[in-house]
């Protein structure tokens, strides 16, 4: 019996472990609901339900090939032990995973079990992340080598292993399911939805990708929306990369007037961000401690593990008194999605304006993001909190972001009914309304809508002053170079130690990789928030 262990790779296409196990003999496709992982602080009900939707389609495809998916519940080593007692396991097959600390520890226990039982465990890479990477030099070439390899078709026929499953737990007990409600407005799981989204993006939606990704008003349709499917692995990074390249090649042979405007640039941008997706995951693979501690040692005590409960709860509920921040947090709570610029803003506000340590807000966002990918999430949380030492620190102005990306107040009025009648000149700064205007608008500050805990400009300046005071040290600059050597991009100056910080104005526009004629290894713009690492 050759066990194929499905984790964050819920597909039959481009699945090397499944293909190789099928060649070896009888196959048992296996998915395990692990109580420790599902009960973790970064897991939520929406993640479980999205996964179940993906599993239904995976089971359909495996059943059609001859070997239905077996779904069991329990700690993975114990599940393997019980299966091994009933039908000896000849080999275990899976993809490599860059997950959270719990899955890393779990994998080490599985490795120990395999060693004790004499069962070989064959792990295969599925992204551009490199195990046991010794240097970032030429990492982009390794990424390209993997992305250029042929996409593997699914096995036509699987010979199922025969194993008695009587008495084995086949699903999570209700008591172990994550707390909280599943989001009714979230995306649905499964390979079919992923393929449909990719098809529409390649066909025409990519035309608006570069111009529409920053504004929450246009990002819902302009962004690919493939991120949750990458996170669960119903679609591989290689499949998407090669599909984008085929579409670009098809367009390039057409006369220029026949090419849809913006489509080539949008496809190049997507490819660049798929490359950046793996770049960020490599950080956590190379340094798992990033999930818990600052990547730069000099910033480990920046916030002194501080969490102001009142400020955190106001931020979490979307009641900070800053309309753009609150609208985004409420939108996220309803749908499980935000475009990247707004993600950067809400995290920056939490860490810099409200001066809360990044860990607990990071866990909240992990539960809220349907597309939570630990390898992207934790490095980004730290980047937006100003603790990496190698990135420009941007204290996003919640007022300027509203004026720039929701100029007519559409998003704010949609998600904050209390502001529906507030005059436009006060909409993004409702605390400036005279009392008579507040009464006329039916929005008394402090009663119908909260006043901000702090002044956003003063708070941002103070946060940057504190960060600057740490960066000024020669020893800290030397440590920043060491961080860059371990984690920084080697393509140009995309992620070199930053010399300047800016308060209140948000990110500047930089020349992005999408403007290059050849985006094969294209990195995002020098300001990564211009393109979504999650979209």
Explain what the structure shows.
The chain has 535 residues and is mainly alpha-helical. The protein folds into three domains: 2-126, Rossmann fold (3-Layer(aba) Sandwich); 191-288, Alpha Horseshoe (Serine Threonine Protein Phosphatase 5, Tetratricopeptide repeat), CATH 1.25.40; 291-515, DNA Cyclobutane Dipyrimidine Photolyase, subunit A, domain 3. The chain has helices at 16-24, 35-38, 45-65, 76-86, 101-117, 139-148, 191-203, 209-212, 216-222, 227-232, 237-252, 263-286, 309-317, 323-335, 340-353, 359-368, 374-385, 398-405, 410-415, 435-441, 456-471, 474-487, and strands at residues 2-6, 27-33, 70-73, 91-95, 121-124, 394-395, 502-503. α4 packs parallel to α5 (101-117), α11 (237-252) runs antiparallel to α12 and α12 (263-286) crosses α17. The radius of gyration is 24 Å and the shape is globular. The two termini are 39 Å apart. Residues 492-535 have low confidence and may be disordered.
């Amino acid at each position: 019996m050759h066990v194929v262990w499905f984790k964050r790779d819920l597909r039959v296409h481009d699945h090397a472990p499944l293909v190789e196990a099928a060649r070896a003999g009888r196959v048992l496709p296996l998915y395990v609901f692990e109580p420790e992982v599902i009960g973790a602080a970064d897991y939520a009900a929406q993640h479980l339900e999205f996964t179940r939707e993906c599993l239904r389609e995976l089971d359909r495809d495996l059943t059609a090939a001859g070997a239905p998916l077996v779904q069991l519940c329990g700690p993975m080593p114990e599940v393997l032990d019980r299966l091994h007692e009933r039908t000896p396991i000849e080999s275990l097959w899976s993809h490599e995973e860059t997950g959270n600390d719990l899955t890393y520890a779990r994998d080490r226990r599985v490795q120990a079990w395999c060693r004790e039982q004499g069962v070989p465990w064959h792990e295969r890479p599925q992204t551009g992340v490199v195990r046991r990477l010794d240097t970032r030099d030429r990492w982009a070439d390794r990424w390209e080598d993997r992305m250029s390899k042929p996409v593997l078709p699914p096995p036509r026929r699987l010979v199922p292993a025969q194993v008695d499953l009587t008495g084995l737990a086949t699903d999570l007990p209700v008591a172990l399911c994550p707390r909280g409600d599943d989001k009714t407005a979230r995306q649905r799981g499964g390979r079919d939805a992923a393929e449909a989204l990719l098809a529409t993006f390649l066909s025409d939606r990519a035309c608006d990708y570069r111009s529409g990704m920053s504004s929450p008003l246009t990002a819902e349709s302009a962004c690919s929306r493939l991120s949750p499917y990458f996170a669960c692995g119903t679609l591989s990074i290689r499949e998407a990369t090669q599909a984008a390249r085929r579409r670009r090649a098809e367009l390039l042979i057409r006369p220029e007037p026949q090419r849809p405007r913006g489509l080539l640039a949008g496809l190049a941008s997507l490819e660049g961000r798929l490359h950046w997706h793996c770049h960020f995951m490599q950080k956590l693979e190379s340094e798992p401690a990033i999930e818990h501690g600052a990547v730069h040692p000099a910033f480990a005590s920046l916030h002194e593990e501080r969490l102001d409960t009142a400020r955190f709860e106001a931020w979490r509920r979307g009641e900070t008194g800053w309309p753009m921040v609150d609208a985004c947090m409420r939108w996220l709570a309803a749908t499980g999605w935000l475009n990247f610029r707004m993600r950067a803003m809400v995290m920056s506000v939490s860490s810099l304006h409200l001066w809360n340590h990044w860990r607990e807000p990071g866990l909240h966002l992990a539960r809220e993001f349907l597309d939570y990918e630990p390898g992207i999430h934790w490095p980004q949380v730290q980047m937006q909190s100003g603790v990496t030492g190698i990135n420009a620190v941007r204290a996003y102005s919640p007022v300027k972001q509203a004026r720039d990306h929701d100029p007519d107040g559409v998003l704010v009025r949609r998600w904050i009914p209390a502001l529906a009648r507030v005059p436009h000149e006060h909409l993004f700064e409702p605390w400036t309304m005279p009392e008579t205007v507040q009464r006329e608008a039916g929005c008394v500050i402090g009663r119908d809508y909260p006043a901000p805990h702090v002044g956003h400009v003063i708070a941002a300046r103070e946060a940057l002053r504190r960060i600057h005071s740490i960066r000024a040290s020669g020893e800290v600059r030397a440590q920043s170079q060491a961080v860059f050597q371990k984690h920084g991009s080697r393509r140009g100056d995309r992620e070199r130690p930053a010399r300047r910080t800016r308060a209140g104005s948000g990110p500047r526009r930089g020349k992005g990789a999408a403007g290059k004629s050849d985006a094969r290894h294209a990195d995002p713009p020098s300001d990564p928030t211009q393109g979504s690492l999650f979209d």
